[in-house]
Amino acid sequence: MSSVIALPPAAPRAPRPARPRHPCSLSQKRFWVQNQLQPGNPALHVAVRWRLEGELPTAHLEKAFELIAQRHEILRSAFAEVDGEPMQTALPSISIHIPEIDLPGLAPAEAELEAQRIAELEARTSFDLRSTPPFLRVTRLLHRAGVSTLLVTAHHIVCDGWSLGLLAEEVGEICNALADGRAPVLPELPWSYGEYAQRQADEPPTLEAESAFWRTKLDGVRHFELPADRPRPPVFTPNSDIESRLLPRDLTQRLDQLGRRHGATLFMTLQAALLALLHRYTGETDIAIGTQIAVRDEVELEPLIGLFVNTVVLRNDLSGDPAFEQLLVRVRDNVTEAFEHRHMPLEHVINIVRPPRDLSRHPLFSINLQVQRSCIRNGDYGRFRLTELPPAPAGSIFDLNVFVIESPEGWRASCEYNTDLYERGTIQRLLRGFETLLHGVAASPSRRLSALPVIDAADRHELVAGWNATAAEYPQDRTVADLFEQQVARTPDAPALASAGRTLSYRELDQAANRLARELQSRGIGRGALVGVMLERSTHLSVALMAILKAGGAYVPIDPSHPPERIGYVVGSARLAAMVTRSTLIDRLADTDAPVVLLDSDAEGIAQHPPTPPPREVTPSDLAYVLYTSGSTGRPKGVQIEQRSLVNVLWGSTRAPGLKAGDVYVSVTTIAFDVATMDMFLPLITGAKLVIATEEQTVNAEELLTLLRTQRATAMFATPVTWQFLLAAGWRGEPRLKMICGGEAMPRKLAEDLLHTGGELWNIYGPTETTIWSSVLKIESGEGPVPVGAPFANTQFYVLDANGELVPRGAPGELYIG
Fold first, then answer.
1. Core-most of 20, 32, 306, 721, by most CB within 10 Å?
2. Are strands 385-389 and 379-380 parallel, antiparallel or unpaired?
């Protein structure tokens, strides 16, 4: 920006008739309307901090601002609505008082924190546009002799960023003139802002062509969602904060050179980089962002303080995974075309496009980008030095307002973010990712967007190693049967199993399983043999599963309530070596050549076997079970799980969600669901009591509640549907109950309802192929979706995009489990 003082003298003007008031400009009307919708919204403020060094009396500053307001009538203008239209009227004069706040006595670090606090308070203190001007205020913070901070806050309706540079120059000239005892030397102003606005009203710009352009350009435009930390409030608020990052000088120089090679400005290059980052965070290829452009099309407007800014929507096409250089050319052409149609006020564009009404966000875009060289000349102003400090957060009308501004130290990338949506750490990672991507662009602009780095070394280490530091000891040389027998030795007389009025101690359960295991071995069942189990929910089910493992085989669970076609498919596909069922269910079996053990009809023969453990040759690498899922094609698919995988999950589960001797675990899960494996074995390796609910109890809320109460249950797994089923039946919870949930996403409202019961609430997640579950999370009260949690013991999670690259934290991708 050219210095104001360096402007050539203005040409003589013809006398203009004085008018008591002027209409507001097109840009001012936009801010007037926004202020009407949200009176006092601090997002409509312009707030800066200037560090002053040198002897500069506050009285001189006050006089300087008053004289500047006398020169620029916009700073002494009042606003009112006349016949439905906002009008501005310049008062003859105004006085400006600059309060001083003394900060001495504080340590330097404490003084800076206090200065930051005051700056934020000043930036957010609202203006009432219906009151008396000025709509600009100045506060001075005194640090020590000769050093102070000037806080300048104005309503955007009277000022823009360019104007701040003019303000600084004129303050410097006037203060120096007052100290020298001379008149300030400033160029005559060819126009007043009110005259500029009047001319707009008298000679409105022809916008038919621009209307047609924006109607076509933004047809079908839609919002894209950058992953947020919290759900979007129903009504957008200006609550915001700022994070910033200084970009290395050599980096911005290389980016500037890259842009020049392609006929692009630094703004275009940085915009292309931001779009590439947003694409990698969201996967979107149709991305609209906003930017502000100064509409000072005539040299006579350059020395005027006022609002000469319009917001332009930049809709971008990132399809086809282009090289960055190709995207840069697209952005260059797109920006050039959009800026040629920059005069259409944003409100008119919104009226043309007519996006769906949504009070929770900006109508057309949620992310804004500004790139500009500093409007403020940092350095020597004669008797003092002025240095612009990073701005204090006032408020934002966008989810993210990214601005890259030249400072004395170099280009600084900052992000003002809505604190209702984002955590500070998220924005810090976003800025680190932005810089990382810029380095990648500068080093290799021919790389495709999918190959550009977007995660810095520290974040990559956290995603790869930090989150996956899950190594945990577990009995790698043991099988599930081994762990059960060890528990039998510890608590032989403790209750182990109960169902339908029958209870077995650990000793009784062990002996029953041993006898059945020996029966299976007598029929040729040994290491690696697959044995089908089709039984109702009873103590027999638990005995049968443990017996198969003790015999050395692996079980294949079959739900007797499943359709005969599915049962037949599983039996045929698994090529079972034997089948354990009851005579009442035999008619549900298709023809099979496998031996069938009927627990009722063969009971007398089974009882003749010794109750001691049978010999077995089973290793941790042998199969424990094969569970048939629906499969991605709709045909059942057998998933094979080894003993060591099951032992790892069970052993880790003794810690989280956790189970101990004396607990009472109620099982309500169908045997054909993999979590039933945890139901059947976790209680029995910890000394807890396993209670198997009958079929009738699992579908009748009153009976299930009675079971939970009479058994004094302390733990139960169920799907969200079942937990909601219990709440709907009037269940008010039990503080001692550990509620474990999985199988489908846990709704936040249901989680909050369950937490209000006073018990512990756990979320588990994992596909059948990874052995029951892969992650576990103790749910706490909060907002937003309930996450799946951290990877389980000896498990790794990686979230990758379609190209197999790590996605940034919070970005969507596919979960890879190791």
1. 306
2. antiparallel
CA pair distance 497, 746, nearest whole angstrom: 30
What's the order of all strands across the beta sheet hosting 790-791? 502-505, 495-499, 689-692, 664-667, 715-718, 738-741, 760-765, 775-778, 790-791
Question: DSSP states of 627-679 as a string?
Answer: EEE--TTSS-EEEEEEHHHHHHHHHHHIIIII--TT-EEEE-S-TTSTHHHHH
Strands of the 410-418 sheet, one edge to the other: 240-246, 410-418, 400-407, 367-372, 286-294, 309-317
Contact 374, 407 (CB under 8 A): yes
Task: Specify the amino acid at residue 28.
Answer: Q
> Residue 476 and residue 488: Cα distance in Å, rounded?
20
Nearest CA to 254 among 244, 269, 276, 234? 269
Does residue 243 contact residue 414 with C-beta atoms inside 8 Å? yes
pTM of the model: 0.86
Q: Which of 313-317, 373-377, 724-728 has the weakest average pLDDT?
A: 373-377
CA 180 to chain centre: 57
CA distances from 770 to 170, 354, 643, 796 (A): 70, 49, 13, 11
Q: Please check the confidence at residue 17 and state whether its pLDDT lies above 60.
A: no
Helices 480-490 and 539-551: angle between axes, nearest 10 degrees:
120
The tokens for 766 are 């994992």
Q: What sign results for the dihedral spanned by CA atoms 325, 328, 334, 340? A: negative
Nearest by Cα to 416 from 392, 449, 436:
392
Could you list the beta-strand ranges (E) of 145-251: 147-155, 240-246
**3-state DSSP call for residue 614?**
coil
Q: Which two tokens stand for residue 715?
A: 């733990």
Determine contact, residues 179/322, Cβ cutoff 8 Å.
Answer: no
How far is residue 296's CA from residue 343's CA, in Å, rounded to a whole number?
A: 11
User: Phi/psi of residue 393, each to 5°?
Assistant: -70, 125
Structure tokens at 428: 């810090």
**Element counts in the chain: helices (H) and strands (E):** 23, 32
The DSSP H or E segment spanning 382 is: none
Angle between helices 424-443 and 249-261 (to 10 degrees): 60
CB 742, CB 717: distance < 8 Å: yes
> CA 359: distance to chain centroid?
20
CA 86/CA 29 separation, integer angstroms: 7
Residues 366, 371: Cα–Cα separation, whole Å = 17
Nearest-CA neighbor of 810 among 229, 224, 223?
Answer: 229
Is the CB of residue 416 less than 8 Å from the CB of residue 124?
Answer: no
Omega before residue 657 within 30° of 0, cis: yes
Question: How far apart are the C-alpha atoms of 813 and 817, rounded to whole Å?
Answer: 13
Which percentage of the chain shows pLDDT scores above 90? 84
Q: What is the mean pLDDT of the chain?
A: 93
Which token pair is 484?
């059960």
β-strand pairing of 814-817 with 797-800: antiparallel
Q: Which amino acid is at 765?
A: Y
Residues 240 and 423: their CA atoms lie apart, in Å, by: 10
Unique residue bearing structure tokens 């804004």:
368
